[in-house]
Amino acid sequence: MTTRQRSTSSTSTDPPAWGEVVLGVDTHGEVHVAAVVCPLGQILGTKSFPATAVGYRQLLAWACKSGVVRRAGVEGTGTFGAGLSRYLLAQQVVVFEVNRPDRLARRLLGKSDPLDAQAAARAVLSGRARARAKTGDGPVQSARMFKIAKDSAVKARTQAINQLKAVLVVADPVLRERLSGLGNRELFRTCARLSPREGEAGGSDEDPVAEATLMTLSMLAQRIEQLTGQIDELNQRLTGLVERQAPQLLAQVGIGPDSAVTLLITMGDNPERLGSEASFAALCGVSPIEYSSGGRSSRRLNHGGDRQANAALHRIVFTRLRHEPRTQAYYERRTQEGKTRREIIRCLKRYAAREVFNLVRTVSTDPPL
After folding, report:
1. Which pLDDT value is given to residue 298?
2. Contact at 8 Å (CB) between 119 and 101?
3. 33 touches 114 (CB < 8 A)
4. Which of 52, 120, 197, 289 has the most crowded CB, counting CB atoms within 10 A?
């Protein structure tokens, strides 16, 4: 039986089939360390492989010598293990994201790559590892790349704007008064055209500080304009991608292209990996967590999850509070029931997560026409 013929229906909680083994991998930049565990938890082998396309094939071929590989636990599926995860998924192996072992286990058992690989395999075998890896091979992964570039450009532009305005504060009074009344767009355009020769307009001798100030303002303004052009292009690409991939999100009140892209990235190219809307809510950090001790039982806020997705849901809720009558009516009703503003916002974020999940999953699971 080839690896492509294996079923992907098994989950981390299914009992292992006869002859099945579980693969665990501790990933690094240059080398991946793999371990194979039998259904009873016995280590069948541990070996290192290069983190290359050839190494991925060798790793899976080596693991298949011990039995049928249907499940694998991989550390860092979004970083060092991304390439291996994509390869295993293409070979019909279900990949689970495995967090590093906790500190107590490392203090008791020690720390080494083989031990981490064995712990990854046992996490899948025991059912502790439940989060399935993203495929990272579709339009959502493309959106993730574009968003990385956009976020970096926005951060750099903000830094350049702050630096330009800080330079203006200590600039020559004549130059500062000339530029003080301009809006940001006109200010950047004017500064980009500045040249050191303008410092000679007053008829004074050559002033190295004035020359350096003009050159700095010009370079910073040119950098701002260049970054603005990149941001505009990336925004167009992201908007077009969302319109093609999930137009149903943009049709909802309060969900713009930026929030839609963030939530799609959190779900990944294979949203079916999330078993329920509760899983997506937990992934976004908007699910309550049980908190009890003795006779006291309560729930607390989930401070984990993807904080960018959490922020996107926050923006959606506040936009709806300003513009959507249904949300405003809900807020008034819960306020009359004695709920605080913070509690109501948490509920609305939970509802927004459920709505996004159902919209994306319904479309992604529809059979092709």
Report:
1. 67
2. yes
3. yes
4. 120
More confident residue, 50 or 291: 50
For residue 365, the model assigns a pLDDT of 52
Structure tokens at 9: 């229906």
In angstroms, the Cα distances linking 9 to 92, 271, 287, 327 are 10, 15, 27, 39
User: Above 80 in pLDDT, residue 199?
Assistant: no
Q: Can you tell me the distance from the alpha carbon of 71 to that of 58, in angstroms, rounded to the nearest whole number? A: 17
> Would you state the structure tokens that stand for residue 35, as one six-digit string?
């371990």
Tell me the per-residue pLDDT of 89-128, one tens digit each, with 9 for 90 and over.
999 999 998 876 656 666 666 678 888 899 899 989 888 8
Report the pLDDT value the prediction gives residue 314, as an integer from 0 to 100. 95
Which band of pLDDT confidence, cut at 50, 70 and 90, is reported for residue 355?
A: very high
**Inter-residue contact 231 to 277 (CB < 8 Å):** no
Q: Is 65 exposed, middle or buried (0-12, 13-18, 19+ CB in 10 A)?
A: exposed
